[in-house]
Design goal:
The complex is a heterodimer.
Chain A: H1 2-22, H2 24-44, E1 47-49, E2 55-59, H3 62-68, E3 69-71, E4 78-80, H4 82-114, H5 118-129, H6 136-147, H7 152-159, H8 173-197, H9 201-209, H10 214-225, H11 227-242, H12 246-251, H13 259-267, H14 273-305
Helix pairs in contact in A: 3-14, 4-8, 4-11, 6-8, 8-11, 9-10, 11-14, 13-14
Chain B: E1 7-16, E2 23-33, E3 38-42, H1 49-57, E4 64-69, E5 72-73, E6 84-87, H2 99-109, H3 114-127, H4 143-155, E7 161-165, H5 173-190, E8 193-198, H6 201-207, E9 210-215, E10 218-223, H7 225-230, H8 235-240, E11 245-255, E12 258-263, E13 267-272, E14 282-287, E15 292-295, E16 305-314, E17 318-325, E18 331-337, E19 351-356, E20 361-363
Helix pairs in contact in B: 2-3, 2-4, 3-4
Classes of the chains: A mainly alpha, B alpha+beta.
Chain lengths: ~300, ~375
């Protein structure tokens, strides 16, 4: 008996090894494509900037120091780089708010779609994905057109005499938020929908049957059960939001920069590739830490539930 | 004065869809369910029994009619306000909670103090003999155990009425038999009115105090198991409950509730006539398979019908015989209990006679 079981087990593990071997070429490509550029960025961050961009092959920590510190051009002393810190802060705060807002809008949206008859669900999902068809740049300019001082909203408000002067909406953090919530909403709705679709609505009925009000059913049954979707959606929104470039650059103007714009600046006008590389890696680290904290918290909450 | 009915369904209809697609799942139905009764809604799938249950639970609202719970109209009350709990067909246990948390959910939602919830959960675990598994996840217990948890969860808040939606259909035969006894015990111990939905007539007959047979959204007959089996109200009930033979015939005379019916296949049969039913002319007579026995075809004193034995089916406790009667059309089923060490008396293809027991036949309404 044990012999037979042992033989089968050995056979199965050999099978699995063979499968590994078969996928090796693909794995190598992925490994090279994923780690290669990262390695280049990592190496560049420890080099000195060239006069017209690019890098000089001289080891230097200036790039990393400049991430948070500023070197005085006269006496060479270091002080905290207020501009960078405030951009970091703004990026994290705006991304967090974006995540929360897309969750607040996306949750009811996904719930609405899931509760439609099966036939019409596909249509609703299709409608959700329509914005993806248009270039991000064009969509962002469309928002700009709506909220600029001579735009649709201000125009209507002025026409109805509700305001005397146009409200400055463009080039504010609010404008960036509006744009990001709009752009990233589908990324929240789709994973939420995927996990709500698996939700057994008989459990919702069971909740109602056991004296849970609609709000309690939402809190005690629906939310705990669709938590994987909430986590996936939040990650999918938070990460690109933190590195967003197009939206803050068009809707935020030059003053309301986010990390993505700061990095772009270093590779472009700033001609400081090592700083740009260091900032990129810093962004990655922030994302990793945020993810670790979030997933761990969400996980422990889940296990406490039951 | 008579006791207030636990649940009273008054002219309730539930119509799904609109216009030409409108479909009455429950069609102007009225029925009263007494206090502390084990009441069964029995019918084939799609007959509206589950819809009726969902109307009582509050998951659906009736298109018209009243649902009274202890004299109060609850037709428009949301489910979380009704003192009625349900055992779902799929059990619908909360997968993110332990067994104990599942059982305590209703009480917690009612805002009961923690200690009271705990005591009640313990009592419930004991009632369904699940004390050892209180801390398990619901995915870590077997189907039968899930069934018990679902029962305990629904009983914990001490509802006025417990609804059971085919709760035993997912269990295997042996476990189902055990749970049937268990359910009867729980009903007796708790004194709660049980409304049980099933399509399994055997389950209905063995467990119920009273049965309502449903078809196409209507209740055809309400009665205790014996009434339903022995005196089916119409052809559907007779056909649905147990196996039945139908013979067409013509009434020649009726005396003291016994009619003489002339049938083309069996000659003159005396059949009981339902009370307050005026039987005359063409009627259908019903005969249960166990009220007839096979005999030699040439025994004129006993045999009432003759035919060819088409099929013999061995069932362990009994054997079923399907006999093609002499008219060449009617297939008559009869059932004989198996005796020890008895070999089959007749084989397929034999010519056989059929002897009917006294008072076996019954005239069907309409």
């Amino acid at each position: 008996m044990t012999d037979a079981a042992g033989t089968i087990e050995a056979e199965q593990s050999r099978d699995i090894r063979k499968r590994w071997l078969l996928s090796l070429p693909a794995l190598l490509i992925i490994l090279a494509a994923a780690t290669g550029p990262l390695l280049i960025v990592l190496v560049y961050s420890f080099l000195a900037p060239g006069p017209y961009g690019d890098v000089q092959w001289l080891a230097s920590l200036d790039g990393w120091i400049s991430v948070v510190m500023e070197k005085d051009i006269f006496d060479g002393t270091f002080s905290l780089a207020d501009a960078h810190v405030s951009i970091f802060m703004r990026s994290v705060v705006l991304s967090l708010i974006t995540t929360v807002l897309t969750l607040l809008v996306g949750f009811p949206t996904a719930y609405f779609i899931v509760t439609r008859p099966e036939k019409t669900r596909e249509l609703w999902l299709f409608l959700i994905t329509i914005p993806f068809w248009t270039n991000l740049l064009i969509r962002t300019f469309a928002i700009l057109e709506v909220i600029r001082n001579e735009g649709l909203v201000n125009g209507l408000l002025l026409k109805f005499g509700l305001i005397a002067r146009p409200i400055q909406m463009l080039f504010t953090d609010g404008a960036i938020l509006t744009g990001m919530v709009y752009v990233y909403l589908p990324l929240m709705v789709l994973p939420l929908y995927a996990s709500m679709e698996k939700l057994d609505f008989r459990l919702v009925e069971a909740g109602y049957d056991l004296y849970a009000t609609p709000f309690k059913v939402l809190r005690k049954i629906i939310i705990p059960l669709v938590k994987p979707g909430v986590i996936a959606g939040s990650i999918l929104v938070f990460i690109p939001a933190l590195g967003a470039y197009v939206t803050p650059s068009i809707l935020g103007g030059g003053k309301n920069m986010m990390l993505g714009n700061l990095i772009e600046l270093q590779f472009g006008q700033g001609r400081n590739w090592p700083l740009g590389s260091a900032l990129s890696i810093t962004l990655m680290l922030i994302v990793m830490v945020a993810l670790l904290v979030y997933v761990r918290n969400a996980g422990s909450q889940g296990s406490r539930h039951g | 004065m008579a006791e207030l009915n636990a649940v009273e369904i008054r002219h309730v209809s539930k119509i799904f869809g609109f216009g030409e697609f409108a479909f009455a799942a429950v069609d102007n139905t009225s029925v009263s369910i007494r206090q502390n009764e084990f009441f069964t809604l029995l019918g084939p799938s799609g007959c509206g029994k589950t819809t009726l249950l969902r109307l009582i639970a509050g998951f659906e609202y009736p298109t018209s009619g009243e649902i009274m719970l202890n004299g109060e109209n609850i037709a428009a009350m949301p489910p979380f306000k009704r003192p009625i709990n349900t055992v779902f067909q799929s059990y619908a246990l909360f997968p993110h909670m332990t067994v104990a948390e599942n059982i305590g959910f209703g009480l917690t939602m009612l805002g009961k103090p923690k200690q009271e919830v705990k005591d009640r959960v313990d009592a419930m675990l004991k009632l369904v003999r699940m004390e050892a598994l209180a801390g398990r996840r619901t995915s870590q217990i077997s189907g039968g155990q899930q069934q018990r948890v679902a029962l305990a969860r629904a009983l914990a808040p001490q509802p006025k009425v417990l609804l059971l939606d085919e709760p035993l259909s997912a269990l295997d035969y042996k476990l189902r038999k055990d749970m049937q006894i268990e359910l009867k015990r729980l009903q007796a111990e708790t004194g709660i009115t049980f409304i049980f939905v099933t399509h399994d007539q055997e389950e209905a007959l063995t467990m119920s105090d009273r049965i309502a047979v449903m078809s196409s959204g209507k209740i055809l007959q309400v009665g205790n198991p014996r009434e339903i089996y022995d005196a089916p109200a119409d052809r559907f009930v007779a056909d649905f409950i147990g196996e039945t033979n139908f013979l067409k015939g013509r009434i020649s005379s009726v005396t003291d509730g016994i009619a003489d019916v002339d049938t083309p296949v069996a000659g003159r049969i005396s059949a009981t006539v339902p009370r307050d039913f005026h039987a005359e002319g063409e009627v259908t007579v019903v005969l249960r398979p166990e009220h007839a026995t096979l005999c030699q075809p040439d025994r004129a004193d006993a045999s009432q019908m003759t035919g060819t034995l088409e099929n013999v089916v061995y069932f362990g406790t009994d054997t079923h015989y399907h006999v093609r009667l002499s008219d060449g059309e009617t297939l008559f089923t009869l059932r004989e209990q198996n005796k020890p060490l008895q070999s089959a008396r007749f084989a397929q293809g034999d010519r056989v006679g059929i002897a009917l027991e006294a008072n076996a036949a019954r005239v069907l309404r309409n």
